[in-house]
Amino acid sequence: MPVDVDVLVIGAGPAGLAMAIELGSRGVRVLLAERNVRGGAAPRAKTTNVRTRTHLRRWGVADTLADASPLGTDYPNDIRFVTRLAGYPLAHFSDAFNAAPKRSDLYPEHAQWVPQYTLERVLLDHVRTLPSVEVCFGLGFVSATQEEDAMVSRLASEGGERQVRSRYLVGADGARSAVRELIGARMEGRYGITRNYNIVFRAPGLAEAHAQGPAVQYWQVNSDGASLIGPMDSGDIWFFMPTGMKEGETLSNADAAAAIARATGIDLPYEVLSTDEWMASRLLADRYSKGPVYLVGDACHLHPPFGGYGMNMGIADSVDLGWKMAATLQGWGGQTLLDSYEAERRAVHEIVMEEAVANNALLGGQLYQEGLEHDTPDGEALRRETGERILAAKSREFFTLGTVLGLGYEDSPVIASDGTPAPSRDGKVYTPSARPGSLAPHAWLSDGRSLYDLFGPGLALVAAPEASSQDIARAEAEAREAGARLRVVRPEGVPVRELYGAALTLVRPDQYVAWRGMRWSPDTLRHTLGFQPAREMVSGAA
User: Fold this and answer.
1) pLDDT at 535 over 60
2) Do the Cβ atoms of 146 and 538 come closer than 8 Å?
3) CATH 3.50.50.60 domain locations along the chain
4) Which of 61, 87, 90, 386 is deepest in the core (most CB within 10 A)?
């Protein structure tokens, strides 16, 4: 029999789980359907960045993920370039991706090196606490058609087919998205920039068998080729990524173990757990939605993983779309608010694509020169020169705060520009700004909480001491009339006027600034909540 829900989400990876949380935490009825059993031994994503961890803080599970860290959050999140684990050091990057568990004035949550399957377990456990969300594994998407007021989707399991009626359909179903096929979206760009091979293995004693110092990634540059290796999970589980493999070339478990021993220079009994071939591509969907059908995550953008953007971008997609979809369903958001999803996220994806492709251009193989491993003065000089090249070329990959926190939505149709000029962009350095479209600047309160903790799940109006009480009352009245939750935030001990550049600042549920000014404008809510015309319809089936 048909099942009536507000939103059907296809795919229970990080993007799908984030979508279910954003919707379910607002009481939206969701069915989260996943064809496969999630998990496995071969996660490609291992960095949960500061922005994603801040979302986890909003959801109340940031500490849960920290406690689940297999290496411990105190383990140095360093990147080391070496000739081999048993060889010479070349270059060292400390605290990559801002993962050290120390307090920063720029963000409330540090990044974390953690396997994707561990993050998924934490998110799934949280999803299952939300009464309005149903999770079904072993249930795959077949097709969908649009009726007047609903999408009618066919889902298949071993027990037969299930029909689901929903107001919206969200494809979080990855690179081979069936939902993307449904709406006729095409991936455009470049497929197969590089071919990569990921090997997960167990090696008791490997951490103690070398003298390079602790790190989460070791980039090896030697006469046997370039590779990445690093600890991944408890139980002496590591990953190994050789580069430069030929098209169609595969490795048996015995060959993989031999390749690890050769690359590291350390002979141990390596137990290969999995091997996985994958392509690094630069692909962007020509559309992210059609009618009530939307795409998030890998379903609409694929880029090289170097820089740790991919999974985090998918979660950010779902945050942006999730609160807007909930607002539209609950009547306090207009159609233009929902339409702004693609306008906002595509601009970010394009910049991140360029960063990831640039990082992918130098994977280590180009760094090797004959004599690099020689125990001679010439070899030492060559290693010193190579280390300087690495430090100059690769820092943008490991220090990304300007990209992670500094990209905004200033050109969005639901952002009220104040006419101030856009700041210059630096992918490595984040300079806080409350310019509309930017991430709201962070601050710590005297009691140890984050300013973000005061914002709540709806809209927040951050008020400086000089803000007019009549203006605040007008904003509250307009929010009540629109049916939107608005929390007035007057943080003690925070220099709001200096930090935000205005007496009043309207912050969205995703913590981005929608408007700021000295006096409340009566058009602000209608503009930022997107009350404008509807969009096109979907017809046909996948």
Assistant:
1) no
2) yes
3) 3-70+109-189+282-359
4) 90
Q: 214: closest CA among 372, 112, 71, 390? A: 71
Contacts with 312 (C-beta within 8 Å, 6 or more apart), sequence order: 45, 47, 48, 49, 51, 52, 404
Q: Is 509 helix (H, G, I), strand (E, B) or coil?
A: coil
In this prediction, residue 43 has a pLDDT band, given cuts at 50, 70 and 90, of low
Element spanning 394, H or E? helix 377-398
Of residues 235, 255, 11, 259, the one with CA closest to residue 137: 11
Query: Exposed (0-12), middle (13-18) or buried (19+): which is 190, by Cβ within 10 Å?
Result: exposed
Q: Where are the beta strands (DSSP E) in 444-534?
A: 459-463, 486-489, 504-507, 513-517
pLDDT band at residue 360 under the 50/70/90 scheme: confident
Q: Give the Cα separation of 163 and 155 in Å (integer).
A: 6
Residues 6+ apart with CB under 8 A from 224: 262, 263
Backbone conformation region of residue 403, classed left if phi is above 0, alpha if psi is from -120 to 50, else beta? alpha
Assign 132 a pLDDT band (cuts: 50, 70, 90).
very high
- The CATH code for residues 3-70+109-189+282-359 is 3.50.50.60
DSSP single-letter state for residue 275: E
Residue 327: its H or E element: helix 310-329
505 by DSSP, 3-state: which?
strand
CB 82, CB 220: distance < 8 Å: yes
Cα 309-388-398 angle, rounded to 5 deg: 15
pLDDT tens digits for 501-522? Answer: 999 999 999 999 999 999 999 8
Lay out the sheet containing 513-517: strands in order across.
486-489, 459-463, 504-507, 513-517
Structure tokens belonging to residue 415: 């952002």
Q: Does CATH number 3.40.30.120 belong to domain 417-520?
A: yes
Residue 424: strand, helix, or coil: coil
Residue limits of CATH 3.40.30.120 in the chain: 417-520
Q: Are strands 504-507 and 513-517 parallel, antiparallel or unpaired?
A: antiparallel
| Residue 196 phi, psi dihedral angles, 5° rounding | -130, 155
In the DSSP assignment, the letter for residue 246 is P
Q: Give the list of residues 6+ apart from residue 308 with CB closer than 8 angstroms, or none.
A: 45, 46, 47, 49, 97, 400
- Exposed, middle or buried, 536 (CB in 10 Å: 0-12/13-18/19+)? exposed
The radius of gyration of the chain's CA atoms, rounded to the nearest angstrom, is: 24
Q: What is the mean pLDDT of residues 376-383?
A: 97
Backbone angles phi, psi at 416, to 5 degrees: -90, 100
**pLDDT value at position 536?**
44
Cross-strand partners of 477: none
Three-state DSSP class for residue 353: helix
